[in-house]
């Protein structure tokens, strides 16, 4: 690849490397507990080194350790050119392509690579050269045809999985590193693209770069490109050295130890076969373990005696292999090892800031849902608040209303903004953490770039909010400057909110913990504002919070702006505006604020923002997210021993399934992009599948081959009648017919009764369960009700053994931040879940992606066995080894755009291509040959022109009946519309027979879901603790501020504040839901599509698991607030308060369930949901004494209205308040009894009203939960 500048050659030396889980105590660090054991390897400069081994052998763990990304305990030494590896890693010369892709979702492929090039390529390199290099990378990686496609996410369809993988590789190539580590870079790629990628890496190695990759299933010509091989098995080193020729290197060493490579076998496949444990049965397992132990001991013994075998290729040898190496690189290769660490390269800090600002702004504009959601949130909230406080009068109640409006302006909008920003940043920080570890940019440029990109948006949003509130609320208009001060205050508070969000997310990346921190801090800050409790009434040990409370400063600025040097009419008082109560300056003194003090709060908020961003930067700099923790293995449950059906017998209920042939007749799928107006865009429809006709027969293993982006996944979704996620302004059209045993069906549930689909990703697996538990729970849910539980458990354990998951059976699946099962193990687990039921049709999207060659072979053999029993098995596959290809019965070969190149029997494919002058070369994998023929080589114009012409000609011939039939040498052509081939068995299928796989009975589903969900949550401590601690933290904060309430005049305001703040429990319920429910919802939708259980069973199980946490937290809240604070206490009052707390938390959860089910984007849900709940809290009655009549009517539907009246009546009834001479002189002696407070609020204190309110709280709690269920049910059924 031309365009890359030269780099300093760097070699890696590893001695005595062992890796232990980070949570392991020193006394427990033994060989048995180690993840890697005494690894000694060399990675020479300018070489391509491959790490081979089965799934779970330690390949990723070794790469993490080499790249400095491991969170485990690493012993031994890792050096680069004789110096500590950390010094080189910190210089930015080491890049790492990890297994997962973390990319900004709304940038195109080209933009993603261009921004990476600008950030990391040298400043001295002209911009156009950087862009030219990007185009070269796009061509080399075969990304030309998707260059202008967005990356995409779960909400908006963008690049395919393989294309995202290549973009990630491209980003790391553009870092221009001296050392490049790559974890399974070819996973998800077809064999042709994989070969092109490895050839590119070889070219880079010949220019001085050192590249080390883990790889699962390299084709034979890829294996020949490796310089060195590191072979692992179970964390032990089996071989490390030169790949060598047939009788040398790795193959020579294995031959010396009695393992000779058979003829016509891919060497990589053979090496993995020999070093993998066959745990499909005990005899094979013991034999394979003994074989591996001998090999490990032989290698260790040889190295211990100082003997050399297959020594890693030397720098001189590697340099001599490529004559195109620049002179400077050759010099560095031949020269003595440099002890000078290369300087950092890439953009300067100022340029990083500018580039990151551009990139962030670009991504922001494309994230239309979040962008317009922010605007909609501001419009809704501002308009609603304006209506609640519409044109406030100048009465006493009006003065109270003005104070309430100003406090709401200073707090509610910023609280909503804080919660949304915490959630938004919890998503964005995944990209930041990855790029930060890649040394793409610094923390300060990132924060400044983010601020510049978002400055205009959040400034405009704050100004829009200010203008609407100001004029609808009827705030002072004697000078336009007051509007300016009001807007300035909101802008400053908006950015301090962002600062707090960054501060919280810097400490905790997960939303559950970060939201707990943010919620707790904001409660401190808002309670210190002087609105709920006078400043001089706040306990002395908490009064300092006012100095960092931007809510206090914001409220002070807005109040000063509204009340300074102003008198209110107060027509209900004799003295009118001359009464001290109606003097604005007295009102400010009552709040503890100065008159005309604009500078101090403004400067204080600015200092707050700067200080928070500095603190956030320090935490991000000093506490980076360096990698993943290793999940511990679980002890085997004594009540669930491993149960294996030794005879392999299957209950009769599982064998009586219909044989189903599937016929595709001219199936076409197109995507039309439309403008918001509904008109089609000018670029026309995009063809995803183009008139595909094919047969998938029962009793056969059918394979879909094709390059990335050929439509394989889309076709599988079409087979399951699952719609394509196209976005709000796109339209998907499907034509043609799909016949299931001659019958056209379109009902997804009906099809799900016959078919099971294993999707490409494994995100639906619960991270807190082990592999064994996942399969056992799935077995109990999915297998027929007439089977006994022990039979179901036996089936689960049998599948566990067949898929080679025995050794990791008790390891947690793991998730973000926690390393559990490897990628290959998760893939097999997902397949195992679907294999449990032995469906009539089993459809698997890329079953071998992420699996090593040995495991892939065993898996496909198992799929062949399943097909031979009469099932229809359909798989897409990227890189099948040669002995796997021989197992295929039917092949559908697709080119990009979903166009058919071949469809028919596997045995006829090679003769068909040979007839068209495309004979397979000797010693070539048939699948690789087919993929090479059907792929377009985009690496240069000449190759593209030739390959495109070849592909188009193959498609033309296939569509030409006569030419195709002559090539196939068969009489009939594929069935056309209206013509159905004969089916095996009966000629038609009784539709009623399709219900053979019914949902699990409610009682079983409910019981299993409750246990499974609870176990998953309790093994994720941050989720379980946050559910209770959110409420407890709130109660403790209230106790600290309001402890031991008195009966003086200021205590009335304190009581108002405490009772109003209780409404925030509804937000706690929402936050608890957002931390847990999306994960559960994802799995429910996955299992519901498989017709496993009903929405009702899931919903009730979620409510059951949620209830203990809500009840516990509500009781704790009641104890703390009633007895620590000093509210009127009695047994009945305690249970009433706890009951109300429970209902508020439950209502918040209901809002979370409803909005998460309604809107796919959780971020958008947070924005809209928070706005609605804020209105509820504001309209409760403490802040909104007077409202327009129509809002008062709407308020009857809000639970907070009734809660406010219950707690106020319960607290104020029977209270007497004292009035000091100072209060009388200041005109603040307003309340003599609790009845005076209730009269001001307008609350009915009668017993009948209390009973009515209590009933309405219960009714609304149940009603909202029922509404949440209806929304969930309706959205799931879609």
Question: What does this entry look like structurally?
Answer:
- It is a single chain.
- Strands 6-7-8-3-9-10 form a six-stranded mixed β-sheet, with helices on both faces. The protein has a six-stranded mixed β-sheet with strand order 17-19-20-14-21-22, with helices on both faces. A four-stranded antiparallel β-sheet has the order 2-1-4-5.
- It is elongated, with a radius of gyration of 34 Å.
- About 5% of the residues have low confidence.
- By secondary structure, it is α/β, with parallel strands linked by helices.
- It is 52% helix and 10% strand.
- The protein starts with 11 loop residues before the first strand and ends with a helix.
- It is built from 45 helices and 22 strands.
- The longest helix has 42 residues.
Gyration radius, to the nearest Å? 34 Å
Distance between the termini: 48 Å
Report the structural category: alpha/beta
Low-pLDDT ranges: 313-340, 644-655, 970-989, 991-996
Number of alpha- plus pi-helical segments: 45
Mean pLDDT: 82
Largest sheet: 6 strands, mixed
Share of helix, binned: 40-55%
Instruction: Give the total of beta strands.
Output: 22
Lateral strand order in the biggest sheet: 6-7-8-3-9-10
Q: Which shape, going by the Cα principal axes?
A: elongated
Q: Report the portion of residues in β strands.
A: 5-15%
């Amino acid at each position: 690849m031309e365009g890359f500048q030269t780099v300093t050659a760097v070699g890696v030396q590893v001695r005595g490397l062992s890796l232990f889980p980070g949570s392991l105590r020193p006394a427990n660090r033994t060989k048995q507990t180690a993840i890697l054991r005494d690894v000694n390897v060399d990675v020479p400069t300018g070489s391509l080194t491959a790490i081979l081994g089965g799934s779970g052998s330690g390949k990723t763990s070794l790469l993490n350790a080499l790249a400095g990304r491991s969170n485990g305990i690493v012993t031994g030494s890792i050096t680069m050119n004789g110096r500590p590896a950390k010094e080189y890693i910190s210089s930015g010369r080491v890049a790492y392509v990890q297994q997962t892709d973390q990319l900004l979702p709304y940038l195109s492929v080209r933009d993603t690579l261009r921004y990476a090039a600008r950030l990391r390529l040298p400043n001295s390199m002209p911009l156009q050269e950087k862009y030219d290099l990007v185009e070269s990378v796009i061509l080399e990686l075969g990304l030309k045809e998707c260059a202008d496609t967005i990356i995409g996410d779960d909400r908006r369809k963008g690049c395919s999985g393989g294309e995202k993988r290549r973009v990630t590789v491209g980003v790391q190539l553009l870092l221009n590193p001296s050392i490049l580590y790559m974890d399974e870079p070819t996973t998800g790629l077809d064999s042709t693209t994989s070969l092109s990628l490895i050839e590119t890496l070889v070219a880079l190695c010949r220019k001085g770069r050192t590249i080390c990759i883990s790889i699962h299933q390299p084709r034979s010509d890829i294996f020949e490109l490796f310089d060195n091989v590191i072979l692992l098995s179970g964390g032990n080193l089996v071989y490390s050295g030169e790949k060598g020729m047939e009788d040398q290197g790795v193959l020579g060493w294995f031959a010396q130890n009695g393992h000779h490579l058979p003829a016509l076998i891919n060497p990589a496949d053979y090496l993995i076969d020999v070093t993998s444990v066959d745990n499909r049965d005990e005899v094979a397992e013991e034999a394979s373990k003994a074989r591996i132990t001998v090999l490990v001991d032989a290698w260790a013994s040889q190295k211990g005696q100082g003997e050399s075998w297959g020594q890693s290729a030397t720098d001189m040898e590697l340099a001599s292999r490529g004559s195109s190496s620049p002179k400077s690189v050759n010099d560095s290769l031949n020269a003595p090892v440099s002890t000078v660490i290369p300087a950092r390269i890439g953009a300067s800090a100022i340029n990083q800031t500018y580039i990151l600002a551009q990139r962030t702004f670009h991504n922001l504009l494309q994230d239309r849902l979040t962008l317009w959601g922010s605007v909609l949130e501001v419009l809704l909230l501002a308009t609603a608040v304006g209506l609640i406080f519409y044109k406030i009068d100048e009465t006493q109640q009006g003065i109270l209303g003005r104070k309430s409006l100003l406090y709401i302006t200073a707090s509610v909008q910023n609280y909503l903004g804080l919660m949304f920003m915490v959630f938004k940043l919890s998503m964005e920080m995944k990209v930041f953490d990855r790029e930060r570890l890649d040394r793409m940019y610094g923390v300060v440029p990132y924060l400044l770039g983010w601020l510049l990109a978002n400055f205009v948006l959040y400034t405009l949003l704050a100004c829009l909010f200010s203008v609407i509130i100001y004029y609808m609320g009827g705030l002072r208009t004697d000078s336009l400057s007051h509007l300016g001060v009001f807007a300035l205050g909101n802008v400053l508070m908006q950015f301090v909110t962002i600062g707090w969000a960054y501060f919280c997310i810097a400490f905790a990346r997960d939303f559950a913990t970060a939201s707990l921190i943010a919620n707790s801090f904001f409660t401190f800050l808002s309670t210190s504002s002087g609105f709920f409790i006078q400043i001089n009434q706040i306990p002395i040990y908490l009064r300092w919070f006012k100095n960092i409370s931007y809510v206090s400063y914001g409220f002070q600025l807005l109040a000063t702006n509204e009340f300074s040097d102003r008198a209110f009419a107060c027509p209900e008082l004799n003295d009118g505006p001359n009464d001290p109560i109606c003097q604005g300056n007295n009102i400010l003194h009552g709040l503890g604020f100065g008159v005309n003090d604009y500078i101090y709060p403004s400067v204080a908020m600015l200092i707050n923002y700067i200080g928070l961003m500095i603190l956030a930067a320090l935490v991000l700099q000093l506490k980076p997210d360096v990698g993943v923790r290793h999940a511990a293995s679980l002890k085997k449950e004594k009540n669930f021993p491993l149960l294996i059906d030794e005879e392999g017998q299957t209950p009769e209920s599982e064998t009586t399934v219909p044989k189903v042939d599937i016929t595709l007749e001219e199936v076409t799928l197109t995507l039309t992009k439309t403008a918001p107006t509904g008109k089609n865009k000018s670029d026309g429809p995009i063809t995803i599948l183009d008139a595909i006709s094919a047969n998938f027969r029962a009793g056969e293993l059918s394979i879909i081959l094709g390059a990335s982006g050929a439509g394989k996944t889309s076709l599988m979704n079409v087979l399951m009648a699952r719609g394509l996620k196209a976005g709000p302004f796109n339209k998907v059209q499907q034509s043609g017919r799909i016949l299931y045993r001659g019958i056209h069906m379109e009902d997804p549930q009906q099809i799900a009764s016959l078919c099971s689909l294993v999707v490409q990703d494994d995100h639906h697996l619960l991270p807190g369960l082990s592999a064994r538990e996942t399969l056992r729970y799935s077995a109990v849910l999915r297998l027929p009700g007439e089977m006994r539980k022990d039979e179901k458990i036996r089936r689960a354990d049998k599948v566990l053994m067949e898929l080679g998951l025995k050794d990791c059976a008790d390891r947690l699946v793991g998730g973000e931040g926690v390393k559990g099962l490897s990628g290959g193990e998760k893939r097999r687990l997902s397949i195992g879940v679907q294999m449990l039921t032995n469906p009539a049709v089993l459809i698997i999207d890329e079953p071998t992606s992420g699996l090593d060659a040995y495991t892939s072979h065993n898996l496909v053999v198992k799929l062949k066995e399943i097909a031979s029993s009469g099932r229809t098995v359909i798989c897409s596959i990227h890189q099948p080894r040669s002995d796997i290809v021989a197992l295929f019965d039917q092949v559908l070969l697709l080119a990009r755009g979903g166009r058919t190149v071949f469809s028919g029997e596997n045995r006829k494919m090679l003769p068909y291509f040979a007839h068209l002058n495309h004979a397979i070369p000797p010693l070539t994998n048939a699948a690789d040959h087919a993929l090479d023929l059907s792929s377009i080589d985009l690496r240069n114009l000449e190759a593209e022109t030739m390959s495109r012409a070849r592909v188009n000609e193959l498609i033309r011939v296939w569509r030409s009946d006569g030419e195709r039939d002559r090539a196939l040498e068969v009489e009939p052509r594929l069935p056309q519309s209206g013509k159905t081939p004969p089916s095996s068995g009966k000629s038609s299928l009784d539709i009623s027979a399709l219900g053979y796989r019914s949902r699990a009975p409610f009682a079983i589903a409910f019981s299993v879901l409750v246990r499974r969900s609870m176990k998953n949550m309790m093994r994720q401590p941050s989720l379980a603790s946050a559910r209770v601690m959110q409420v407890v933290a709130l109660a403790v904060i209230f106790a600290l501020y309001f402890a031991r309430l008195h009966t003086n005049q200021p205590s009335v305001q304190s009581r108002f504040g405490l009772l109003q703040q209780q409404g925030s429990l509804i937000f706690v319920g929402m936050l608890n839901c957002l931390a847990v429910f999306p994960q559960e919802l994802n799995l429910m939708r996955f299992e519901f599509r498989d017709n496993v259980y009903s929405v009702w069973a899931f919903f009730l199980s979620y409510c059951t698991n949620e209830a203990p946490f809500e009840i516990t937290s509500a009781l704790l809240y009641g104890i703390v607030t009633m007895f620590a604070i000093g509210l009127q206490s009695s047994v009945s009052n305690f249970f009433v308060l706890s009951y109300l707390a429970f209902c508020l938390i439950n209502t918040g959860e209901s809002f979370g369930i409803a909005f998460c089910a309604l809107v796919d984007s959780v971020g958008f849900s947070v924005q809209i949901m928070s706005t609605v709940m804020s209105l509820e809290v504001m309209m409760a009655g403490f802040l909104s004494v007077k409202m327009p009549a129509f809002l008062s009517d709407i308020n009857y539907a809000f639970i907070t209205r009734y809660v406010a009246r219950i707690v106020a009546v319960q607290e104020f009834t029977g209270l007497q308040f004292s009035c000091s001479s100072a209060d009388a002189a200041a005109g603040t002696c307003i309340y003599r009894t609790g009845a005076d407070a209730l009269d001001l609020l307008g609350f009915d204190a009668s017993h009948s009203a209390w009973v009515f309110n209590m009933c309405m709280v219960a009714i609304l709690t149940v009603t909202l939960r029922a509404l949440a269920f209806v929304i969930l049910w309706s959205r799931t059924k879609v």
